[in-house]
């Protein structure tokens, strides 16, 4: 087989992989502390309102009190509220929860970047994009010693190594993972 044919096959395969990855839907949004939710209860204006998700993951609503939103999608929160309200109503009410503000969906970039800080993210953001938000690495950054610190659901914290130079050169692109809310990118 000629080099030209092999090269064209590899280009076609790469294009197909990019196409497939673009068509795969991302994970549904999970509610975060700091988000503002709009709770609409059909035909019950007094029960419809905006609710701030507290740092403990709960929201407070009339009649039903505290609702835990931890690791829940807006649809799951809708179902929980509908079930709780059904104890006080003849029929299960129609409840829609929408996210008004994603103020709780944050990542943090610290260390040797141009603009370290906290960044609100409104879509899937990978490590390279987070570094771009922070203005890129500064001259003294150890680009192959970057760490992503992530707190798991059980409270344990994990450290994920990231080699910027490798990805910058177009290699090991799978290591450029999508960040989760509250991840910390540390650039030594």
Helix-strand makeup class: alpha+beta
Mean pLDDT: 88
User: Mind summarizing the main beta sheet?
Assistant: 5 strands, mixed
Question: What is the molecular shape?
Answer: elongated
β-strand amount:
25-35%
Description:
- The chain is α+β, with helices and mostly antiparallel strands.
- The chain has four helices and ten strands.
- It has a five-stranded mixed sheet with strand order 7-6-10-8-9, with helices on one face. Strands 2-1-5 form a three-stranded antiparallel sheet. Strands 3-4 form a two-stranded antiparallel sheet.
Defining traits:
188 residues, alpha+beta, five-stranded mixed sheet, 4 helices, 24% helix, elongated
A few lines on this structure:
The protein is of the alpha+beta class and 188 residues long.
What's the SSE blueprint?
Layout: H1 3-23, E1 36-41, E2 49-52, E3 58-61, E4 65-68, H2 74-86, E5 95-101, E6 106-111, E7 117-120, H3 127-133, E8 146-151, E9 157-162, H4 164-168, E10 184-187
Parallel strand pairs: 6-10
Antiparallel strand pairs: 1-2, 1-5, 3-4, 6-7, 8-9, 8-10
């Amino acid at each position: 087989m000629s080099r030209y044919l092999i090269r064209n096959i590899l280009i076609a395969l790469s294009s197909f992989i990019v196409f497939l990855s673009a068509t795969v839907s991302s994970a549904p949004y999970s509610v975060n502390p700091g988000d503002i939710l709009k709770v609409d209860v059909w035909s019950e204006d007094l029960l419809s309102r905006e609710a701030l998700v507290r740092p403990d993951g709960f929201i407070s609503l009339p009649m039903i009190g505290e609702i835990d939103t931890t690791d829940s999608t807006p649809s799951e929160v809708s179902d929980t509220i509908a079930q709780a309200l059904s104890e006080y109503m003849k029929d299960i009410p129609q409840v829609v929860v929408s996210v008004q503000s994603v103020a709780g969906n944050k990542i943090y970039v610290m260390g040797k970047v141009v603009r370290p800080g906290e960044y609100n993210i409104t879509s899937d953001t990978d490590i390279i994009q987070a570094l771009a938000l922070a203005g890129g690495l500064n001259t003294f950054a150890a680009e192959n010693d970057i760490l992503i610190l992530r707190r798991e659901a059980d409270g344990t914290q994990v450290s994920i190594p990231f080699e910027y130079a490798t990805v910058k050169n177009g290699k090991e692109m799978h290591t450029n993972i999508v960040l989760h809310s509250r991840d910390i990118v540390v650039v030594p």
